[in-house]
Amino acid sequence: STLPGSHAPSVRATSPTDCSPGSYSDQSGQESCKPCPIRQFQDQAGQTGCVPAQVGFYVAGVRSAAPTPCENGTFTEQPGQSRCKLCSKGKVTNSSGRCQECPEGHFSDSAGSRMCSKCVPGTVQPLPGQSACDECGPGHYQVLEGQRNCTSAPPGSYAPSAREISGTPCPAGLYSDQSAQAACKECPTGRFQAQEGQTACRIAMPGFHVPSTRAKAEISCPVGEFNTQEGERTCDRCYDDLDEYGPPYTTSSSGSTECDHCHQGYFKTSSGTCVECDPAKMDCMVPGLSVSSL
Dihedral, CA atoms, 228, 229, 233, 237, nearest 10 degrees? Predict the structure, then answer.
């Protein structure tokens, strides 16, 4: 009589034969072994039963001597399965055959993905288990791949649109005094900025003016005009009838802060006033005469 785990294929057999891998015998006196059913296997000879496929493996047919591992992107949740399931979006299989979430900075956009993909520059993903990456919005950027968070454009720069991979320095005539800006601010009248990437505008000095916005340089007051305050949009004219100095005055050069010169035909006295010359007594054809030069 045969023992469990063996069989006697004929009445003439002199000794029992072990059941081959993929089969078993759970009773005595058996003429044949039973095949391992679907979902189970047996990798050793002479056994009395079969073993369920472990998690991460499956057995699709009968008489199996070994389970088949689930392919990347598929899994089994419990032992004894005849097929593997697809991992859902945002997940892939790990070394133990189970689905796990893609880490931050990565994504999986289809079920059954074999591996997680890194978020490309200009996009990020702060959460695990996601099927897509988030775009960096205006005012932000990301130069690297596989990142969790966007970077704010620092003061002096801007990021004009989504998916930017770097901040852009504000051009001359513009500035940005805050981080995370989508656009730079214009320098107002009376102020200018000659360099790019700046956080503020420079104020026009006395003797200079800035008549328009977005200026890259201050402009000196021309000869005959002046101003005494910084940040001016215009210059005052020395020879304007409304000017406190009166018609005789002008400036000695451009960029002046006062009307310190006399027009041709006048000379400056020791008290600083311009007096009309007497042609019979002096040559007043040279502008800018003073008492000391007479």
Answer: -20
